[in-house]
Automatic annotation (TrEMBL):
Ranges of residues in domain Tryptophan synthase beta chain-like PALP: 39-337
NCBIfam families documented for this protein: PRK10717.1 (NF007989)
Catalytic activities: O-acetyl-L-serine + hydrogen sulfide = L-cysteine + acetate; O-succinyl-L-serine + hydrogen sulfide = L-cysteine + succinate
Signal sequence residues: none
UniProt subcellular location: Mitochondrion
EC number(s) stated in the UniProt entry for this protein: 2.5.1.47
Annotated protein name in UniProt: Cysteine synthase 1
Chain ranges passing through the membrane: none
Amino acid sequence: MFRQSIRRFGTTALRAAEASTTSYNVRVSKAQGFTNGLTEAIGNTPLIRLKKLSEETGCNILGKAEFQNPGGSVKDRAALFVVEDAERKGLLKPGGTVVEGTAGNTGIGLAHVCRSKGYKLVIYMPNTQSQGKIDLLRLLGAEVYPVPAVAFDNPQNYNHQARRHAESLDNAVWTNQFDNTANRQAHIETTGPEIWAQTNGQIDAFTCATGTGGTLAGITRYLKTVSDGKVKSFLADPPGSVLHSYIQSGGNLVERTGSSITEGIGQGRVTDNLQPDIGLLDGSLNIPDEKSIEMVYRCLDEEGLYLGASSALNVVAAQEVAKKLGRGNTVVTILCDGAYRYADRLFSNTWLQSKGLRGAVPKHLERYVVLP
Ligand SMILES: Cc1ncc(COP(=O)(O)O)c(C=O)c1O
């Protein structure tokens, strides 16, 4: 009797759900169903048309909402692929340890993936990083070693310490995000195909900045292949990165000088992730911090998008590519992460002033500078 009423209630509830599905026009695919754990929830992010910038340029400017990944950034994809690559190669078995050198989103992505799969995570980072970053990784279950910030050619550099830590343990792997091409593979197998499917193949250009280069390289490789070379691709570079001048000069690698407020991007060398695809690029753009900051505020005010500075830089680059190609083109970029982890800087009067960037905030958007 009781069971029957549950069944009857169940059927009624199901009918009600079906009815509401129709009336609310649910847009999620039935085939998608549920995911088996966190790792299957990585990817399949929305592609958002930026309405104001699209109107202004007469193009479709589309941003891939990578901030919607479970760990909050595009780096969840790379984190999953480097871990699963190690599993496939037999380098990581149940109960094993993942070691990485990172101060940012890769560590957060790895922390989520490692907890979900039952691995330990050890992170090495320069001790110049904020306590907030250390705390966040620790509360996500990682063992964190802040070490002196020294150059890459010094054996005490955080990346080398991470490698040695992994070598000293059984059943441990150094995931090596910069030169492990499983990172680029994540974007060949997931982000690239998603963009192609979401635009129905109606895409003219792609652009984004690089940290490891995995995102730009993997998406460029996929889009060039699937479109027979028709989709154009451009690297976007912040100040202090050498890749723009490397591309403009046809392969001349200069010494790194200058710096940028953008986090997670900018590079002093051509990584193994970027190397196979750098020759496919159609050009590059250099985006000053002033324009990135202005776009942080514009995206917030015009689109309701609360984005970190690397995403804002990407949007500036997409806008410039759109202008370059002319009206009627579709340009896609990456919205790498949200502004949550950077709010105490990006929206602080004192911080903006200390970087000489207070004047970059448009007058009519000054009300968003809410922190002292
Ligand atoms: C905020 C942010 N944007 C962009 C990137 C660059 O992505 P990739 O390493 O694939 O070049 C990163 C990388 O860590 C990042 O943290």
